[in-house]
Write a structure and sequence with these properties.
By secondary structure, this protein is an alpha+beta fold. The protein is built from 15 helices and 18 strands. β12 and β13 form a beta hairpin. The chain is elongated.
Length: 491
């Protein structure tokens, strides 16, 4: 697959294949076993000191992305993990044979070069090459320089090309890696232990979502790909590990959208002797650190709204019920009958299914009418009891939970709970959610809970959505290296 016309791709492939054959005929190895760079590009550039021309020797390696042939010399640029670095090759320095071989290279070829640093007349730090070797021949051309890789299908399917030719995409995906690394450091500095929980689970618990099912041949039974990390992490609270977290993949066999991918990454964190208020402080500190240390600013542009999100200011706290009353204009909303709620929701332009429960109608108004307008960091508190069976019931308002949803940029970024640790009440809430289907209840988790779990705060953070927010991406697919796609047509 390529953006180039098929006949052009075929012609270039044939030319490059001929070059490969010629190289092998001379005894050269177009696919060397190895090359040892001493520095990445950005590291090498930092070594240069004005007034010390050719004093620093380096070995660098990368993909040829720019070539300027000047007859008896060449200026080229290679791309490596850290970015671009310019090389200067001169015929009378590398020798006639090596120079002739270099001129036969193509854009996309991967080379290694050794030399010294100097600064050109235009002020660009460059490697004056003394030795250069081809380490991998590219048989297919890169996408055309001026148009780049613009077809969305090709961007996601051939991400390896996207990160070569699209600097914005490359930077965004590198930022994701740095964000995840910074999250780990933040939690480990606060004495949290990272653990791994099973992806294949006998009960799809911890959330209300449709799972993927697979069959285990050796055990002769079906398993589910996990939809949540929660229940196994909380088992470890029972085991006496007071601060635990996992950054792992969840799988939900549901729809695709700008904010949803069936395979996604979650951070879940649980802290004994804390509660949802403790999680508020934790997530505020975490996001402030990410903005400061990874992005370099606590003010992040939010293109869809035209606002600048201020992570360094005051974060709003507001109750779920108050938001619903304000949106519907009805102080008696929560005492209205179901037909009245349906009629009011439809007046707001929402499509309501007749079989929905009252709380589902209310939550549809919240998710479709209220949440998209919450751009600045907002903790939405005291969600309805029916929305989560794993949280503690609020003592002042038993119809609600000690829960918050953190909404930023019109998206839910992090829900958090004061975790339910009463095993009898937890069983009751599980049974109410399961509607009498006992096979949907994680009885082993309830058994663990009966051994005693300390009070705790727990929180989930959608890593993909967080990266959309912090990098300014348009879609979840833009922050996932390899999003799910239908299989490509055979070529």
């Amino acid at each position: 697959m390529s953006e180039l016309p098929n006949e052009m791709t075929h012609d270039q492939y044939a030319v490059r294949l001929k070059k490969l054959t010629d190289l092998r005929a001379t005894g050269s190895d177009p696919f060397r076993a190895g090359f040892e760079p001493t520095h990445f590009s950005a590291e090498a550039l930092k070594l240069y000191v004005d007034g010390q021309e050719n004093a620093v020797g380096v070995q660098v390696a990368g993909r040829l992305v720019v070539m300027r042939d000047m007859g008896k010399s060449q200026f080229v640029k290679i791309l490596d993990q850290q970015g671009l670095i310019q090389l200067y090759l001169k015929k009378d320095v590398v020798g006639d044979e090596a120079y002739a071989a270099f001129r036969k290279l193509d854009l996309g070829d991967i080379i290694g070069a050794a030399g010294t640093l100097f600064k050109t007349k235009t002020g660009e730090i460059t490697v004056r090459v003394e030795r250069c070797v081809l380490v991998a021949k590219a048989l297919r051309p890169l996408p055309e320089k001026w148009h780049g890789l613009t077809d969305p299908e090709q961007v996601y399917r051939q991400r390896y090309l996207d990160v070569i030719v699209n600097p914005e995409s490359r930077q965004r995906l590198l930022q994701r890696s740095r964000i995840v690394s910074a999250i780990r450091r933040f939690l480990e500095d606060r004495k949290f232990i990272e653990i791994e929980t099973p992806i294949l689970q006998s009960v799809a618990g911890g959330a209300a979502a449709k799972p993927f099912t697979t069959h285990h041949n050796a055990l002769g039974c079906d398993f589910f790909l996990r939809i949540s990390l929660e229940l196994y992490l909380k088992r470890m609270l029972v085991g006496g590990w007071d601060r635990v977290f996992e950054i792992g993949r969840n799988f939900r066999n549901e729809g695709l959208s700008r904010k949803h991918n069936p395979e996604f990454t979650m951070l879940e964190v649980y802290q004994a002797y804390s509660d949802h208020r403790g999680m508020m402080a934790l997530i505020k500190d975490l996001l402030t650190v990410l903005c400061r240390d990874v992005l370099g600013s606590c003010e992040i542009p939010h293109a869809p709204s035209g606002q600048v999100i201020n992570f360094g200011g005051a974060w709003r706290e507001v109750k779920y019920k108050d938001l619903l009353v304000a949106e519907t204009g009805d102080p008696q909303w929560f005492s209205r009958s179901k037909p009245e709620k349906i009629a009011a929701a439809e007046k707001l332009g929402l499509k309501i299914e007749p079989h929905w429960e009252d709380f589902e109608i209310t939550n549809e108004i919240f998710s479709k009418r209220i949440e998209p307008g919450l751009i600045q960091p907002t903790f939405v508190l005291n969600l309805p009891r029916e929305l989560c069976p794993l949280a503690k019931i609020n003592q002042e308002d038993p119809g609600t939970l000690d829960v918050f949803e953190l909404i930023i940029g019109g998206m839910e970024i992090a829900p958090a709970y004061s975790e339910q640790n009463d095993p009898l009440l937890q069983r009751e809430m599980f049974e109410a959610q399961a509607g009498g289907e006992k096979q949907n209840i994680d009885h082993d988790f309830l058994l663990a809970l009966e051994h005693g779990m300390p009070p705790a705060g727990g929180m989930g953070v959608g890593i993909d959505r967080l990266c959309i927010l912090l990098t300014g991406a348009e879609s979840i697919r833009d922050v996932i290296l390899f999003p799910q796609l239908r299989p490509a047509d055979p070529q």
